[in-house]
Amino acid sequence: MTDTMTKPAPINHWLGGKLTPGTSGRSAKVFNPATGEVAGLVDLASRDEVNAAVAAAVQTARSWRTVPLSRRAEIMFRFRALLDARRDDLARILTREHGKVHADALGEIARGIENVEFACGVPNLLKGGYSEGASTGVDVYSIQQPLGVVAGITPFNFPAMVPLWMLANALACGNAFILKPSEKDPSASLFLADLLKEAGLPDGVFTVIHGDKEAVDALLEHPDVAAVSFVGSTPIARAIYQKGTEHGKRVQALGGAKNHMLVLPDADVNMAADAAVSAAYGSAGERCMAISVVLAVGDVGDRLVEAIQSRLPALKVGPGDQPGNEMGPLITREHRDRVAGYVAGAEAQGATVVVDGRAQQFDGDGFFLGVSLLDHVTPDMDAYRDEIFGPVLCVVRVPTYEAGLKLINDNEFGNGTAIFTRDGGAARQFQFDCQVGMVGVNVPIPVPVAYYSFGGWKASLFGDTHMYGPDGIKFYTRTKVITSRWPDPATSRVDLGFPQNR
């Protein structure tokens, strides 16, 4: 526990391969959500500090891009090995600052490591094309080159995995990468920085600059930042995309979600209930791929709600560092209260509160909230329309597959969705019909493996490329096409006509 007379430890920037105290004079409190205590004070960068960090990154980017692909791959392999060896240490940091239970933190790290493994294949991923003899004596080939300095702005809910979505590919492609992590749980980014240094990444190629809107705006407006990746809420994603593109940047901005799980009458109800509980309440519901709405088709509703309800008393909610707990606290006291407000609001608007997470009592001052199950939710209710981002599962009764599909397609978000059924034809039709970027068939959280790409449709994505995987390589490089001729000088002549390929 933190002594009330002891000043919380500072959390500094990572500049030039080392921890560097901020100079702005501003900082923000970082809490331990399980206790409510202040765990640290994170520096908040000024615009001048961001500008200096970008200037330094420009210099290192020039040398890093010339490092051979084999050497970059070697560093990624070493980084992967270090992450694997130190995953427990990193998980403890996630639990302390985010609140997620240790097992959930380990799962986050495992998915992040998959992205590093993908980046280890960069020599193959950056192979261009070559056409010999495209015209008489002319060869044409393409190469992929890094952009220079790129930045990532990451959310609080996955302080290790989402940065790894971005930095692994960005660095492997030859860019200098500036990470602006969430100021709510910033220490994981510094842990990754230290491992990258140990893996052999040259100083200055990877930078961590902490901050708030002032730092974000400075990155978006700086002319030497070529591209920005973002994951967060839809309003902020939209604003970042608009500002970044206005300043001539390549931007991929992933926004919010309202993920539906369509359960047909022929589904295995026990399997669907297990999936709904796991997908709704894992990580306290603070993930953009959480299932927040179950669409129960026809007469499956009563059986499904009963099956979900029967599983909830066994869930263990408590501090993430205590063995056996399955769900930890929410990130802040304000967010906990906001989520609880949706339960109250749904009840006032006519929903049935089957399980009320507000009634569960917890010791201490942590930001805990029990799980809630709401039945007979309708599309006009706030709990249905908004992204709650907490341990609240809404059940909407629909008469038919078509009615459920319409709700999915009419929703402003298009991040993830799932269908549970034994009917292969219905599942296949669903994957064609739904207007959503990531689809699960009897899989509640269809996060793609690292060699595919992650991203939704509609208001869940701003930009034309998804995150990580092949789209990540595309985003962090630009293609150059070279047309070359090595003719006999005797054949050279002036020709003002349009170039011919024959």
UniProtKB/TrEMBL annotation:
Oxidoreductase listed as a keyword: yes
- Which keywords are on file for this protein? NAD, Oxidoreductase
Give a yes or no for keyword ATP-binding in this entry: no
Record domain Aldehyde dehydrogenase: where: 23-482
Ranges in a coiled coil:
none
Enzyme Commission number, as recorded? 1.2.1.27
- Which InterPro entries does the UniProt entry name for this protein? Ald_DH/histidinol_DH, Ald_DH_C, Ald_DH_CS_CYS, Ald_DH_N, Aldehyde_DH_dom, MeMal-semiAld_DH
> From what superkingdom does this record's organism come?
Bacteria
Which EC class is this protein assigned?
oxidoreductase
Q: Name one Pfam family in it.
A: Aldedh
Stated name of the protein: methylmalonate-semialdehyde dehydrogenase (CoA acylating)
Species name: Deinococcus radiotolerans
